[in-house]
Specification:
Number of strands: 4
Strand content: 15-25%
Structural class: alpha+beta
Strand order of the largest sheet: 1-2-4-3
Shape: rod-shaped
Largest sheet: 4 strands, antiparallel
Number of helices: 4
């Protein structure tokens, strides 16, 4: 095949289409139209999908970065909880083996002078996994002054004995001025098997 064969084929195609019979102005218009259609096809078939793909990739990257930040925050929270668990376990080793939350609350109520205001004490165990077992006591105090309630809360919450107030509800007692009713939930932890 000679090097002029493709050129001949192009000339033959142009003659068959009637390109040679068009005026120069018409050739420019048709050429511009063909170039515009080619540009439109390139944009819609090549360039636009690339842009869409890039945008999806950027959105995916942003989502992954947010997920990574969430994972790092959860990791930090996990480390903090693990450290607290270690501190709790350390405190539990210092606590006497005979310790019970129920008797501790009664002792502190006597110490604060509010034992007569105790309406009820209800101990319970909370089902949980892990190395620690949670014990809870719900108590109701009636006709107690705000000062006595505060004094009791000061002595009953104990970092040495790992006792804390997890929930408290306070209401006025009827029409008596200065008297309150309080429902308090106290919790502690113990090692499994103790």
């Amino acid at each position: 095949m000679s090097p002029s064969t493709p050129q001949l084929n192009l000339l033959a195609i142009l003659q068959k289409t009637g390109w040679n019979r068009l005026a120069k102005r018409e050739q420019i218009m048709v050429g511009s139209l063909i170039a515009g259609i080619a540009a439109l096809l390139f944009f819609s078939l090549v360039f636009s999908p690339l842009l869409d793909s890039r945008q999806r990739l950027q959105k995916s990257l942003l989502k992954k970065q947010i997920e990574l930040q969430d994972i790092r925050a959860l990791q930090q929270e996990y480390r903090s909880l693990r450290q607290q668990s270690g501190n709790i376990q350390q405190s539990l080793t210092k606590r006497p083996d005979s310790f019970t939350l129920f008797s501790f609350i009664e002792q502190q109520a006597t110490r604060a002078g509010i034992k007569q205001q105790i309406n009820y004490l209800k101990p319970s165990e909370v089902e949980s996994d892990g190395p620690l077992r949670e014990s809870r006591v719900d108590m109701k105090l009636q006709k107690i002054s705000l000062k006595n309630l505060v004094d009791f809360l000061k002595v009953v919450e104990s970092t040495e004995n790992v006792v804390s107030v997890s929930r408290i509800s306070i209401q006025e007692h009827g029409k008596e001025q200065g008297s309150l009713n309080a429902v308090i939930q106290l919790i502690t932890y113990s090692k499994r098997g103790d």
